[in-house]
Every structure is written in C-alpha cells, then in structure tokens.
Amino acid sequence: MATYQEAPAGATAPQKMLNWVDNRFPLSKLYKEHVGEYYAPKNFNIFYIFGSLAMLVLVIQIVTGIFLVMHYKPDANLAFASVEYIMRDVPGGWIIRYMHSTGASAFFIVVYLHMFRGMMYGSYRKPRELVWIFGCGIFLCLMAEAFMGYLLPWGQMSYWGAQVIVNLFAAVPFIGPDLALLIRGDYVVGDATLNRFFSFHVIAVPLVLLGLVAAHIIALHEVGSNNPDGVEIKAKKDARGIPLDGIPFHPFYTVHDIFAASVFLMIFTAVVFFAPEGGGYFLEYNNYIEANPLKTPAHIAPVWYFTPFYSMLRATNDLMVNVLSVILAVAGVLGIVKGGLSGKGKLVLAVAAVAGVFLLKAFDAKFWGVVVMGGAVIILFALPWLDRSLVKSIRYRPSWHKIVYGVFVFFFLVLGYLGAQPPSDMGNYVSQVGTLLYFGFFLLMPWWSRMGDFKPVPDRVTFAAH
After folding, report:
1. What is the mean pLDDT of residues 175-187?
2. CB atoms within 10 A of CB 344
3. What whole-number distance in Å separates Cα of residue 302 and Cα of residue 286?
4. Model's pTM, two decimal places?
C-alpha cells in the first residue's frame, strides 16, 4: 500500500490538488514513466512521426464518429437518407462526415508508413516481438472496423462490396454457407446485416482496438523504442542509470510530434475542404447512389486500402493454384535431394509435399483465394521469427537488401492499383506475379535475410545535431 504524502509547506492550490490526486491515483508516476522520464533514442528521424499521427487520427475518428452516430439511423430504409440529412441539414454535419471518411484513409496511410518504418529498422526484432504483434492486431482491427463502417452509408458500392466480401466466407469448406448466413443475419445483405455491422463498428471493434493500442504503448515503453541504427540505448547508461544516447520524450519529442501533427492537419484539412472524395478513392462516386439490390455496379472494388489484398484474392484462380502446386512439388524435391535431411526427415517432407499438393487441388480456387487474402495479413504476425538477419536496421544490411524491400513495396503498390481496376488478363498475370513476390518476400526471408556482407553496427547511435 502506498504511503500517503502530505503537500509541502507553501504549496499552491494546483500543487495541493495534484498531491491529492497522486495519493489516490498514480498520475505523476504515469506521467514520469511514459512521458517526462521516458528516454527515447536521440537519433529519431522523420519516419518516427507516424505512431503519434496514428493516435491523432484515432482521436479524430472517435470524436467524429460520436457526432455521426447522434444522427445516423441503422435501418436499411433510412440509412442512406440519414447520411444525406447529416450532409445537408445538420449544422456542420458535412464537415464531420468528411473528416470521418477522410480520416479512415488517413488512418491507413499513416499505419502503412508506420509499419514500413518498423520493417526497415527491424522494430519487430527481440525484445520488441510483442510490440509488433500488438501492432499487427491493431492493423487487423482497423481492417475489420473499416470494412464494417463502409457498409453504413448504404450506397451502391457499400452494399455490393459487402455482398461480395461476405459471400467469400461461403467458400470455406463444410461451414461456409452457414458462416456467411451468420455474418449477414439473412440470406442477402439487408437490415440485419446493417445492424450487425453497426454494432460491431460502433462498440465491439473500437473497444478491442483501444485495448490493443494501450497494450502496444505499454509494451513499447517497457522495452524502449528502437531507432534507425537498431542499437539498444539501454546498454550504455551513466551513473544515474540514464541512457547516454537517450533524451526525455518531453519536451524533445512532444515538440517534434506537435510540429508533425500541425503539418499533417494542414494537409488533412486541405483534403477535407477541397477534395474529400480523393478522386473517387476516399469516397467512391457510386456510393452517392442509394443501395439497390436489383442493380449491380459495372465494377465492384473495395476502398483503396483493401485493394492490394483484393488483388491477391482475384489473382488466385485455377492457374495460380496449379503454379502453387508445382512450386510446392519442386520445393519438396529440392528439400529431399539437397536438404541434407535424414531418411526419416526426407519421408516426412515427401508426405508433407504430397499432402500439400493434394489439398491445393482438392478445394476450389475461390477458397484458396480467401486463404491467400487472409494469409497476406496473418503472415505479418510471424515476421519477428522469419527475419534471421545478423543486424536489425536496413542501414547495416547488404545494399541489395534495399532493392528487395524496394521491389516488395513497388509490387504492393501495383497490387493496390490493380485491385481498384476492372479485371483484365494482363492485370491478372501481374497480380499473380505480385502475389508470389509478396509471399516469397516473407517465406524466403529466413534464407535471404542472412545472405550478403553486413556492415559493422556501432556501439552507440549515430547522431548529428540539427
């Protein structure tokens, strides 16, 4: 039990109030541990602003969402009209709605950049595995939150996008049709589906999301922040136990983040005021038309932040399954011939390869498309154990590793672009190549990440005052 502390003599009223709170709640202790006396590496660069920006956008989404819920009607007959009412009749409703829709895209932009920074500098490596796993959980929750929120305006693209995605669950063997029926709450996307998605979007998923954000921050502050050099600053401390290469988060990085937030908000407000539709990517033009179950849009595509994974789904057809079967068979043969395995190991590998090929051919390509789409996200959770590099940061890896990362990012962007376009034979072939490269990047990482000549890592962080 904590000892009760009396306020010092001559304390001001605010100091007495703070002392009263501290005796009942560890406010000052939390501030010191997570802000004032939390020592972060002094060599942070521009890539380290996206974590705080993600927190800012989360606050924007929660606040604007609360105001939207005040006027929104989760009813299939009233939902579209209620959104129009918000846009036209509610004072300031249009800006609240545009802030929320633009905020959804902004959220994914900063999260994608935040995750890419973690990949570049090895922020998922020991001892930060849990930080990365909680972050991937946040990303998964964001995808669920965005998908369910996308149905709520009840426009044409909302309705048909939900219809396509929910129908994918029907491809799951044995339980698929019942699972799709459970998600929809009806045999078609309708009022029951809208109510289900509204409940999850407003209550269930945000609670899980906030819990994961708290866990992410607590885990980060327990092990300390990574830095562009991948050097652990806790290894070198002064006589007081303060890292030699660390500086207090406040005021140094709070000012840093406030400046970044100011620039971000200028860009964000410019988009909200002048281009809230984002050229049809942030808000599709078809979504300004009320949902019509009897009229299918000419081209159905998800919002831009889902398109890389949607492109992988479309790329997984019978040809792709055949290619995967051949790759699996060749990998099994090479493992047996040149893997240096014992007789028992070769037998296990052969059985596994045969079983894998059999499963690929036994189930429909549509099912494997769903597996590929989901696996593209789930594989991120395994990254701390896939990367076997001798160093953390891209700075001290072989130069050709940068090319590997560049090819990965390029094809991820290409997959995103193709996922937003109408299907075509050439686009499908490129998507198949991009899908193979995406999974190859991760699945082959235990081998390629150890190859090449690594540069020596300094004992302390490299830093130039600016």
Report:
1. 91
2. 8
3. 12
4. 0.93
